[in-house]
């Protein structure tokens, strides 16, 4: 049995012959965030590819990994009560984990399409940090804090990119930095290592202007045309199921 320091994580993969291969990596914790039971390995910061290792003695029958996408927090049409129900569901169930798949805040700015700036109930700053003078205006940082230890990775959508295109600052990156959530500025591959198996995700926020279900499905499945050995293709953006 291998004994490792508490600051070191062990990642298990398999080679082409099916033999176990082990790699060690650093483990970090963030004050104010519940400890993670999983570890992350990111070999090359320039490549959007990660391993998420769950413990070998995981005491659950299966994992549920759900995307939180197109929340548009701060928009008039955002359903805060429903969003909080999702957060509570993730927080209280040991077998549920999640990732952030873009458009987490409305982030309507000067030049946004249509009258978006007039259809927001919170400013972008309030969407991130909240309003200390108004307890009804919580920031997304604090809303997500109870499940930060269960958020495996994050990437922005077109609403976060509104700010990046003008200032080179991404509001989702600010949120992830505060909660120590792994952040990527582009579509990513993630290998989730659990139960002795590897489950591969390709995740993108997505881009399409299609109004039909068929067009939206075509956009979501397009990554399958240029890759293989991926178990799950994930895309948001279309506001449809």
Top keywords for this entry?
single chain, 241 residues, alpha/beta, five-stranded mixed beta sheet, three-stranded parallel beta sheet, 26% strand, globular
3D structure, described in words:
By secondary structure, the chain is α/β, with parallel strands linked by helices. The protein is 22% helix and 26% strand. The chain has six helices and twelve strands. It has helices at 80-92, 124-129, 140-144, 158-167, 171-179, 213-221; strands spanning 8-14, 20-26, 39-41, 49-53, 64-68, 96-100, 130-131, 134-138, 151-154, 188-194, 197-204, 232-235. The protein has a five-stranded mixed β-sheet, covered by helices on one side. The protein starts with 7 loop residues before the first strand and ends in a 6-residue tail after the last strand. The model has no long low-confidence stretch (mean pLDDT 91).
Which strands sit side by side, in order, in the main sheet? 3-4-10-11-12
Q: What is the β-strand count?
A: 12
Main sheet specs: 5 strands, mixed
Low-confidence stretches: none
User: End-to-end span in angstroms?
Assistant: 46 Å
SSE ordering: EEEEEHEHEEHEHHEEHE
- Number of contiguous helices: 6
- What average pLDDT do the residues reach? 91
Basic shape: globular
Explain the layout of strands and helices.
Layout: E1 8-14, E2 20-26, E3 39-41, E4 49-53, E5 64-68, H1 80-92, E6 96-100, H2 124-129, E7 130-131, E8 134-138, H3 140-144, E9 151-154, H4 158-167, H5 171-179, E10 188-194, E11 197-204, H6 213-221, E12 232-235
Parallel strand pairs: 4-10, 5-6, 6-9, 11-12
Antiparallel strand pairs: 1-2, 3-4, 7-8, 10-11
């Amino acid at each position: 049995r291998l004994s490792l320091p508490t600051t070191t994580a062990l990642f298990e993969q398999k080679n082409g012959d099916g033999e176990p291969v082990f790699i060690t990596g650093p483990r970090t914790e963030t004050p104010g965030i519940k400890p993670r039971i999983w570890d992350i390995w990111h070999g090359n910061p320039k490549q959007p590819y990660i391993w998420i290792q769950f413990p070998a003695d995981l005491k659950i029958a299966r994992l549920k990994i759900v995307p939180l996408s197109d929340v548009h927090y701060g928009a008039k049409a955002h359903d805060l009560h429903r969003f909080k129900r999702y957060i509570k569901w993730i927080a209280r169930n040991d077998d549920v984990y999640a990732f952030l798949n873009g458009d987490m805040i409305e982030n309507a700015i000067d030049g946004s399409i249509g009258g978006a700036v007039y259809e927001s109930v919170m400013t972008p700053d309030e969407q991130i940090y909240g309003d200390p003078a108004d307890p009804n205006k919580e920031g997304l940082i604090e809303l997500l804090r109870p499940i930060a230890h269960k958020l495996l990775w994050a990437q922005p959508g077109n609403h976060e990119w509104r700010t990046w295109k003008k200032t080179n600052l991404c509001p989702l990156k600010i949120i992830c930095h505060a909660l120590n959530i792994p952040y990527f500025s582009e579509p990513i591959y993630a290998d989730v290592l659990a139960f002795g198996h590897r489950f591969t995700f390709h995740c993108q926020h997505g881009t399409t202007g299609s109004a039909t279900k068929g067009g939206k499905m075509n956009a979501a499945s397009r990554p399958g045309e240029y890759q293989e050995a991926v178990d799950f293709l994930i895309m948001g953006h279309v506001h449809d199921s």
